């Protein structure tokens, strides 16, 4: 620690003891709960995570319960939280912990980082908060607080900027209080040292903040310019046969891995929507379809691109659908769709189908 660090720690921990957020995973003696919360909180707001965390812990209260659960059930419980690789990694890591660590999360940072889905930040957070180790952490909130407190003019996400912020995170860490200190930094960034219009007048560190002294707090951290977000036009087939529709499970790796969807794909240049959908079904399922009435248009923004999806009712013209690109395909009734984990757009399609399938006069659930 350098000289100012002790003052920073004293001021921040004193503020934290009076203002700490009451969160369901805090104060838990169970490292598993800390781990689950940290994975859920990656790129997701606290208020969104809380109900998911509570449902998750009710269904999977231990590493063993999660390790034994089928992946489909894990993904279904995660549905709507996004970034589904997090759920797959939690499941796989739980299986590794059960088989290699006697069902107990390893306590050392190096061992934690070897588990799927646990990187440098998450390992530091778990080691400090769950096991009381003197390990630094650097999430978005902590990055912003430190960049302002020490007026770091390097781009925060550049290799040099990242290295400088990790160095500062280690230097200000008070011995034997790393868990509370890391959480205090997170809470300060969430409630006071916010991205826009930080509440500097009530910040416990305002007298020490170099960016505040220079009047550049809203220019810190330095962010790199964002590139334009690509926009994709996508089609999907609601392929009907008797009282059933066809759904396909995406491959286990990649975007929405393991989730179920209505088959289709990205439109190629020069194609009409029906042409693109017929080509996609031919390539994915080795089947020929007739494209009928449009069910709806659905929009969604992912991290690096946006999608406009056009869903059409379709019927088979030739061939029996075969899973050429999907892990598996299945014919299911509309009522059965709710049991299959889906991404946001496909869930919207399934709900639209459920509305159309509901007998007239039947109340909505």
From TrEMBL:
InterPro entries tied to this protein: A/G_AdeGlyc_MutY (IPR005760), DNA_glycosylase (IPR011257), Endonuclease-III-like_CS2 (IPR004036), Endonuclease3_FeS-loop_motif (IPR003651), Endouclease-III_FeS-bd_BS (IPR004035), HhH-GPD_domain (IPR003265), HhH_base_excis_C (IPR023170), HhH_motif (IPR000445)
Keyword 4Fe-4S: yes
Gene3D superfamilies xrefs: Helix-hairpin-Helix base-excision DNA repair enzymes (C-terminal), Hypothetical protein, domain 2, Nucleoside Triphosphate Pyrophosphohydrolase
GO BP of this protein: base-excision repair; mismatch repair
Cofactor: [4Fe-4S] cluster
Keywords for this protein: 4Fe-4S, DNA damage, DNA repair, Glycosidase, Hydrolase, Iron, Iron-sulfur, Metal-binding
Top-level taxon of origin: Bacteria
Stored CDD domains: ENDO3c (cd00056), NUDIX_MutT_NudA_like (cd03425)
Catalytic reaction list: Hydrolyzes free adenine bases from 7,8-dihydro-8-oxoguanine:adenine mismatched double-stranded DNA, leaving an apurinic site
Molecular-function GO terms, alphabetical: 4 iron, 4 sulfur cluster binding; 8-oxo-7,8-dihydroguanine DNA N-glycosylase activity; adenine/guanine mispair binding; metal ion binding; oxidized purine DNA binding; purine-specific mismatch base pair DNA N-glycosylase activity
Domain Nudix hydrolase: 229-355
Role played: Adenine glycosylase active on G-A mispairs. MutY also corrects error-prone DNA synthesis past GO lesions which are due to the oxidatively damaged form of guanine: 7,8-dihydro-8-oxoguanine (8-oxo-dGTP).
Family: Belongs to the Nth/MutY family.
Annotated protein name in UniProt: Adenine DNA glycosylase
Organism: Levilinea saccharolytica
